[in-house]
Specification:
Blueprint: H1 2-15, H2 17-31, E1 40-47, H3 57-66, H4 78-87, E2 90-95, E3 98-103, E4 106-111, E5 116-123, H5 126-135, H6 143-164, H7 171-194
Antiparallel strand pairs: 1-5, 2-3, 3-4, 4-5
Helix pairs in contact: 1-6, 2-5, 3-4
Length: 195
């Protein structure tokens, strides 16, 4: 059992180096997302159709983005994120034929008379957004299946480590106390997170 676990642990470890690094890096970035690290400010102007009502504006903006008009922010893996943010825009005010929409890191000002649209958007660069979107995958995306397999493999890594090493550095002597220490640390962090 020890030798089989060691061999599988080693080979699967090599095989999953890439995905492990992706999850490690994107997990770090997502944990620090409130600090705004690695995010860029995108500011640009464009002209879209005139006299769009506040009720129809978001759908029209998504159509304009899909047509390639906003490729500056709406490209590669960022497409689904930008579309999701546009759908979540809320009308904050309307004055002098100008509509103001906001959602977290996206701010849009639309002039109904001219069609001029100003967009301020804070987001990760497209190459980084691809991996972040993959980290947050849902069951309607291909990455989900790889993430599920990887979750099982991570569980195997943890369990196989219990039988890999024998003797004074084995799980029963050294590993058990280290495991319990790790669990206690997690409990302490959870306690302070919810207190």
């Amino acid at each position: 059992m020890s030798n089989i676990s060691r061999s599988l642990h080693r080979d699967l470890g090599y095989f999953f180096i890439g995905i492990t690094l992706i999850y490690a890096i994107t997990g770090f970035i997502l944990s620090a997302r409130g600090l705004g690290w690695f995010k860029y400010d995108y500011n640009f102007q464009t002209n879209i159709s005139k006299n769009i009502s506040s009720e129809n504006f978001k759908e029209k903006l998504i159509d304009e983005a899909k047509s390639g008009k906003f490729d500056y922010i709406y490209n590669l893996g960022a497409k689904s994120v930008v579309e999701k943010n546009i759908k979540r825009l809320t009308l904050s005010k309307e004055e002098n034929s100008t509509l103001y929409f906001d959602y977290k890191y996206m701010h849009v000002i639309y002039n109904k008379n001219s069609g001029e649209t100003n967009i301020d958007y804070k987001s990760y660069p497209a190459f980084l957004q691809i991996f972040i979107s993959s980290h947050l995958s849902t069951n309607n995306r291909a990455w989900y299946y790889l993430a599920m397999v990887y979750s099982v493999v991570l569980a195997f890594f943890a369990l196989s480590a219990m039988v890999m090493v024998k003797g004074k550095y084995g799980f029963k002597k050294r590993g058990l106390s280290l495991m319990l220490t790790g669990i206690i640390i997690v409990i302490i962090f959870l306690f302070f997170s919810f207190s």
